[in-house]
């Protein structure tokens, strides 16, 4: 974890000489109104980026249903990721849609309790609009209860625990079809806190989403698997160390071995500088590519960038470096990319 002195030095630098977004940032980070993949085939997997670490993932449509099960990861629609509505990092890109226009959601998954991943106003709105299941790591039950989430819809998991849920999906004729999915709480290298005195009191996690085998409207006979990285580091790098010579977190290879790989991975690529402070909790593009390989993903989308200035690297550096790191690793250029705000990536 970051040292007290290292974090203090970073906060001084960040406070008095913070990086500023390019004035043309809106033309650099593509923004579109989400279509939620309405033109995709019913047996395809869809993921729509809603900013920072927030994705709406829709699994293939079961036979007889009008849509597939939908899972929303780390939703934050507030302007500031802060305890205050008046101070703290403010968005430099807008959400691609108002929260009220998000289509029906069956489950919401939270990686940890930092303000850029767990936003109380957003959670409250989603509860009122959709009444979804909520999946959170260990010891986050108190905050869920304070937001009015019913115990029947709150799933508190430790690393490697999983929970299967059945969700009712609408049919074209107005009826209901039941679909099943499994969520597993998997390890991450990070930390938690919402104030000065609750550091490490709650767990942080990545998550694995599995479509339980069932015939889809398109007739595909495989079950899709998605991995959500949440917020994670990969290794700790002190100043002047060679990154390739320091130990790496073994959890990601364990995840890849346990699940046999993933059809899609959502992996953080931003908020990594200065490396001596941030490397243990935030993956760089180089780290992200290694994580991609460790978990045996077929396709990945980079996240945790393009929304707030959280650290000192230029705001467009993460996606630009990702292109270089993918090439260095000998991967196909489309294997690990970023997408625009509001864009839906379709996985056949």
From TrEMBL:
Domain of life: Eukaryota
InterPro entries per record: Metallo-B-lactamas, NAPE-PLD, RibonucZ/Hydroxyglut_hydro
Species annotation: Serendipita vermifera MAFF 305830
Positions of an N-acyl-1,2-diacyl-sn-glycero-3-phosphoethanolamine binding: 115, 282
Record-annotated membrane-spanning stretches: none
Annotated protein name in UniProt: Metallo-beta-lactamase domain-containing protein
GO CC list: cytoplasm
Name of one Pfam family that matches: Lactamase_B_2
GO BP, one annotated term: N-acylethanolamine metabolic process
Ranges where the Metallo-beta-lactamase domain occurs: 70-305
GO terms of molecular function: N-acylphosphatidylethanolamine-specific phospholipase D activity; zinc ion binding
């Amino acid at each position: 974890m970051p040292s007290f002195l290292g974090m203090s030095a970073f906060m001084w630098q960040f406070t008095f000489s913070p990086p500023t977004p390019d004035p043309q940032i809106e033309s650099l980070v593509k923004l579109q109104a989400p279509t939620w993949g309405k033109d995709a085939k019913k047996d395809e997997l869809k993921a729509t980026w809603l900013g920072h670490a927030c994705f709406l993932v829709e699994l293939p449509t079961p036979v007889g249903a009008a849509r597939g099960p939908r899972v929303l990861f780390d939703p934050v629609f507030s302007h500031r990721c802060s305890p205050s509505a008046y101070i703290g990092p403010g968005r430099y890109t807008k959400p691609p849609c108002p929260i009220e226009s998000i289509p029906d959601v069956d489950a919401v998954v939270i990686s940890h309790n930092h303000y850029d991943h767990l936003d109380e106003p957003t959670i409250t709105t989603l509860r009122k609009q959709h009444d979804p299941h909520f999946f959170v790591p260990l010891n986050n039950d108190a905050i869920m209860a304070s937001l009015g989430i019913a115990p029947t819809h709150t799933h508190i998991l430790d690393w490697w625990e999983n929970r299967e849920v059945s969700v009712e999906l609408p049919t074209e004729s107005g009826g209901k079809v039941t679909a099943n999915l499994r969520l597993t709480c998997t390890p991450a290298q990070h930390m938690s806190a919402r104030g000065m005195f609750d550091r490490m009191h709650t767990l942080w996690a990545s998550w694995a989403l599995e479509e339980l085998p069932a015939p889809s409207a398109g007739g595909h006979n495989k079950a899709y698997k998605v991995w959500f990285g949440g917020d994670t580091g990969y290794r700790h790098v002190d100043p002047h160390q060679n990154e390739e010579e320091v130990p790496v977190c073994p959890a990601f290879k364990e995840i890849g071995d346990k699940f046999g790989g993933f059809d899609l991975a959502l992996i953080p690529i931003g908020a990594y500088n200065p490396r001596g402070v941030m490397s243990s909790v935030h993956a760089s593009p180089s780290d992200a590519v290694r994580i991609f390989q460790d978990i045996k993903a077929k396709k990945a989308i980079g996240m945790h960038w393009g929304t707030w200035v959280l650290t000192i690297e230029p705001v467009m550096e993460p996606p630009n470096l990702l292109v270089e790191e993918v090439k260095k690793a000998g991967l196909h250029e489309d294997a690990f990319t970023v997408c625009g705000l509001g864009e839906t990536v379709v996985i056949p």
